[in-house]
């Protein structure tokens, strides 16, 4: 099988590239490197011991995107490419809708033109909104609280409509919870440009002295320690979930959603203490007001992924913190 991976140099994309290569899949990678680095490609190749075609390409560039399809025989697409910062999406909604939604439409038109009708889509638990009670199941009502989440829900809707209208499309909608961790080699991990939006990269920058302290948004939630509870999942578990979904596509009828998480919630301070234990580094933090739109508790029911994909998370929170620390030490 030859798989096009959009956004393949990104955090989750790069780990999925390694997973597919190690299980005998051929891959073609495209990325515009807006929040990643071409050096990641070299690192993927070093870990896997294999090379593959790579295109510096933006999904809004129709000609460049079509070149990828013209020059390669593609059997399926794993679609990661997209802008992903919640706060930035509130400030720049038009940019998010154009990049994420229009870019995906461009991709789908080319997939149809070249007879590629199998996709694994990188969605998000943000589509569950604020009105559901954890654990979240795939059949709950969907809603969003920010433009980033809305782009994910819009793309899910587009894919469902496409599958209903045109027979032969097979799509897995993977709703991630909170990926952290890094490849055990320390070669690839999460290292965003600028001030991080997510918890673990922020902790890591505090750990190596690049930021003075961690900001904890709210300590008055109805949770065991007052801080927000989330379902943190190791990025390597997430990558394995993409392989399982890819292998399942042929037996799907249209579009099917799957939660990818551990099914367990950990608070912000749980993560801080687990990281301190794994690294031996004290993480100073300050409590700041809640962020608008944040919910108290969010974790997954992963029964469907276990029963239908044969997938289950294996790594512990301690493993996630250990591998994150290993990565930042090697790459700070």
Explain what you see.
This protein is α/β, with parallel strands linked by helices. It is 41% helix and 18% strand. The protein has eleven helices and 14 strands. The strands form four sheets. It has a seven-stranded parallel β-sheet with strand order 3-2-1-4-5-6-11, with helices on both faces. Strand 5, helix 6 and strand 6 form a beta-alpha-beta unit. It starts with a strand and ends with a helix. The mean pLDDT is 96.
Structure summarized in a few sentences:
With 332 residues, the protein is of the alpha/beta class.
Per-chain topology:
Blueprint: E1 2-6, H1 11-22, E2 26-31, H2 39-48, E3 54-56, H3 62-71, E4 76-79, H4 86-91, H5 93-113, E5 118-124, H6 147-165, E6 170-176, E7 178-180, H7 199-207, E8 214-217, E9 229-230, E10 232-234, H8 235-248, E11 254-260, E12 266-267, H9 268-279, E13 285-288, E14 297-298, H10 303-309, H11 317-331
Parallel strand pairs: 1-2, 1-4, 2-3, 4-5, 5-6, 6-11, 7-10, 8-13, 9-14
Antiparallel strand pairs: 9-12
Helix pairs in contact: 1-2, 1-8, 3-5, 5-6, 7-11, 9-11
